[in-house]
Amino acid sequence: MKLSCANCFTRTAVLMSTLMFGLGAMAQSASEEYLLLEHLRVIVGDGPVLSDASLLLRGDTIAAVGQSAEMAIPIGTRRVDLTGKTIMPAMIDAHAHLGYEGANSWGAQNYNLDNLVDHLNRYAYYGFGAVFSAGSDPDAFALELQRLQASGEVGGARFVFAAGMAPPGQGPNNQFLVEALEVERQTGNTILRGLESPEQAREAVQEVAALHIPFIKLWVDDRGGSQEKLRPEIYRAAIAEANRLGLGAVVHQQFAEDMLDLIDAGTRGFLHGRLEEGFTEQIANAVKQHDVFIVPNLGLSELRREAIGDDEFLAQSLQANVAERLSASAQRQALPERNPQLEQTLHNSFDYMRNANVDVVLGTDAGAVPYHPFGYTGHKELEIFVRHGMSTAQAIAAATSVAARVLGLEDAGQIKPGFSADLLILDENPLDDIRNTQKIHQVYLRGELLDRDAMAAIFTAN
Length: 462
Ligand SMILES: [Zn+2]
Description:
Blueprint: H1 5-23, E1 34-43, E2 49-58, E3 61-67, E4 78-81, E5 86-89, E6 91-96, H2 113-125, E7 128-134, H3 139-150, E8 158-166, H4 174-187, E9 192-194, H5 198-210, E10 215-220, H6 232-244, E11 248-253, H7 259-265, E12 269-270, H8 281-289, E13 293-294, H9 299-302, H10 312-315, H11 320-325, H12 340-356, E14 359-360, H13 376-387, H14 392-399, H15 401-406, E15 423-426, E16 440-445, E17 448-449, H16 452-460
Parallel strand pairs: 1-4, 1-5, 6-7, 7-8, 8-9, 8-10, 10-11, 11-12, 12-13, 13-14
Antiparallel strand pairs: 1-2, 2-3, 5-15, 15-16, 16-17
Helix pairs in contact: 2-16, 5-6, 8-12, 13-14
Zinc ion (ZN) is lined by residues 95, 97, 134, 271, 365, 368.
């Protein structure tokens, strides 16, 4: 079966309209009506916090933000009193892999438009306005998904992606690699561009630039000796060409020791912190000096040992049998023991990053392995950030304004006039306790209030 994009849309058009009706979130985005969300605490996203403030939305955009008593309100504006609530920008996950996860399996067989939309809707449900899928998507197919989203035919969190690059026939972990190659075969698209020489690496980057894909993702990892590690002269050529053409080069690096040369080569960001071993003050300083960002990505190893299926915040979006599978067992505990030495090392690494004022960005690697769920894991990652010494305000910035800046999402991640009305409304203040990002009252994406109950009913149906 070939998943050409034209086919996908026709095949799924009926289902899409059902979804849109069911979710009530994607209709009439062209509306220019005014909506006032009033009497809120506003966490702007890049630092400031306003008390008793109001937001005026016009259609899909934030038109004004200010003290409630001072707002000029156009005639005919619909008003919603949200006294006691806190509003922050919808969050952004800067490292995920969409499309492969299914309720009862993981792999190429699940990769299709319906499943991608399901994943984007799961992000939306959990208060995310955008997600960066890191190098595992078929290029023409992913561009078509972006087009459908831009035209309002598909909703959910905004889909951003990178073109993957590695030595020929390599890249993701061996299990993932087999499935990515199968999706390439199914779609006839390219996911992974194999790099063999500096000259050919430059050509591959030019090809990506011509497709208007703004990022390349490079894998620099020998997977414990089972793959070839991308050679420095090749990644240097690819990164330099990306920078010359205005593309961001983001990297999966194997070890902290790989970071200095990759920084020197012009890397834009690291999708794994490698903060567990070998991360030094010197690396943190070099990261800052070259304006590179770091996605710590710690939940991936931590949450697989936790009984996350017993967490109601996750279970509310899972089919019962999946929640059961992720609940307490020999492998998963309510409070798994932590290695004190590792905890101390991570604390130190976060200290180095904080002292150097490094751009720390939220990213989860959700979808890269089975049962590292979309959206939910982002909230848990913020808990990990705070546990290792980030302030709640810094964690929120990592999930909003900083993530938007490094991904080039100029109208996302802040609550300011002109920004997209992608908003997370909470019952409690996350500045008091970062776990309050999980007390979701409502989510707006592009000015539309999501019907989260209807969404949960779809997610949990068998
Ligand atoms: Zn990844």
